[in-house]
Amino acid sequence: MLTYTFNDHKPLYSQLYSYIKTDIQNGILSSGEKLPSKRSLAKQLNISTITVENAYLQLLDEGFIYALPRSGYYVSKFHVQSFEKKPSKPFLLEDHHKHYSIDLSSHATSAENFPFSIWAKLSRQVLSNHQDDLMKSMPTQGTTILREAIAQYLNEFRNLKVSKDQIIIGAGTEYLYSLLIQLLGTHQNYGIEVPGYRTLHHIYDAYNLHVKPLYLDKKGIKPSSLKDVSVIHTTPSHHFPTGITMPLSRRMSLLEWANEEKERYIIEDDYDSEFRMMGKPLPPLFSLDQSEHVIYMNTFTKSLSSTIRISYMVLPPHLAIRFNDHLSFYNCTVSSFEQYTLAYFIQEGYFEKHINRMRNKYRKKRNDILSLLTESPLYPLVHIKEENAGLHFLLEIKQDYDYDHFISSCHTKGLHIKTLKDYGGKDDKTLIINYSSLSLASFKEAITILYDVLKKL
Ligand SMILES: Cc1ncc(COP(=O)(O)O)c(C=O)c1O
Mind telling me which residue stretches traverse the membrane in this protein (predicted)? Predict the structure, then answer.
């Protein structure tokens, strides 16, 4: 006989359902056993027939019981063991984003540099003016308004004549790389710059793709290294992390290489081109390309914030058509709310003002940092390199040292720092100094730590 007591916290049918389910799981009600009729159980428990019926229906839906016409309800066939909970092993996930008091490897933007008040004003405008648009599904490539704004921006500031239909918006360059692998094919032989952007390496690895390391000379990728590759990735405006700017002659050689075969592509990652500090920027490979071999990529990670997760790529027309034919089943990964706000930000001229303001700020910060460095006791021990483009520069340590000991001593003192070796290079004596999120006070402290560590090595 089923005897259960009820409380006031949950609906009665739900309590009855749970009691019977638990009894089935514990084997108290066994497979094939007939349950009391709705009416008799209701009477026995002093509840309504409808309550019992609802509980039985729920058990029926979940397959714990079955009904036989004109006969009643029966417990389904189960092995009681299948309900036994196996104790799960406690586990701890490794935190891949360790926090240091000073992080010279961080690409973050400091909060004082994000245009919060304008962003808030534009977000409000978007929320009141585009309520219908925000609820509609958007094209795979991203909202029309943002793609138009980006096309106009590229035309005015990078001299790239592109249509909105060539632009694909995605949540970060790294996500767009996955799309590109799907678009260009896993049969391609990919080549990546070494040293270079490590995330790329991880992405190609995750797809089990064989990638060829492309070692660099002073001008960037060597054309002689391209014999057995078909798709290459490059950062010609400001190579990451060595900082070299690829000269025009080398850009032309890469284009010549790509032109030799139909299915050869150059992926041009222009990730921090907005922040060239001296001289005129060189034309992107995309603008020099006459035969649809270059894919242009850029991101708002450097210009706005690494947490905003908005990037885009510009495909040559035949790839834009291929994308539309084969990959338009995907939904765009950036929320339309953010896309509308960013589109307003660009179209109303705030982006250009923000970039100009940030370029001046970063230029001043870089100069202040370099002055601090040249006036410090560390200066005689180092050589400053590639400080004229982008948001990082290099610091070569003149003395010999033990790399592991150096890095771990810095970590112990709360300083996170990377060398070219951490990006796949051989050189473990050249440090990469990212300064976008660094305060002068922190940099001063970093200099002191570096000096102390080097003196004691
Ligand atoms: C070479 C390079 N490309 C792209 C990015 C930006 O990637 P994402 O758009 O995924 O933030 C970075 C970030 O630092 C980078 O160093």
Answer: none
Which tokens in the block code for residue 202? Answer: 């991880």
Which sequence spans correspond to the domains of the chain? Answer: 12-83, 102-107+359-456, 113-353
**pTM, rounded to two decimals:** 0.86
Domain 12-83, what fold? Arc Repressor Mutant, subunit A (1.10.10)
pLDDT at 281: 77
Using CA atoms, how far apart are residues 299 and 281, in angstroms rounded to an integer? 17
Nearest CA residue ID for atom 12, ligand 1: 271
Q: Which of the listed CATH numbers 3.40.50.2300, 2.40.160.50, 3.90.1150.10, 1.20.910.10 matches domain 102-107+359-456? A: 3.90.1150.10
User: Is 311's C-beta closer than 6 angstroms to any atom of ligand 1?
Assistant: yes
Instruction: List, for residues 374-431, the tens digit of each pLDDT value.
Output: 999 999 999 998 777 678 999 999 999 899 999 999 999 999 999 999 999 999 999 9
**Per CATH, domain 113-353 is 3.40.640.10:** yes
53 lines ligand 1 (CB under 6 A): no
pLDDT of 389 reads 67
Torsion of CA 319, 320, 323, 326, to 10 degrees: -90
Residue 89 has pLDDT above 90, yes or no: no
Asked if residue 299 has its Cβ within 6 Å of ligand 1, the reply is: yes
Give helix then strand counts, H and E, for the chain: 15, 16
* Alpha carbon of 273 to ligand 1 centroid (Å): 12
Distance 430 CA to ligand 1 centre (A): 21
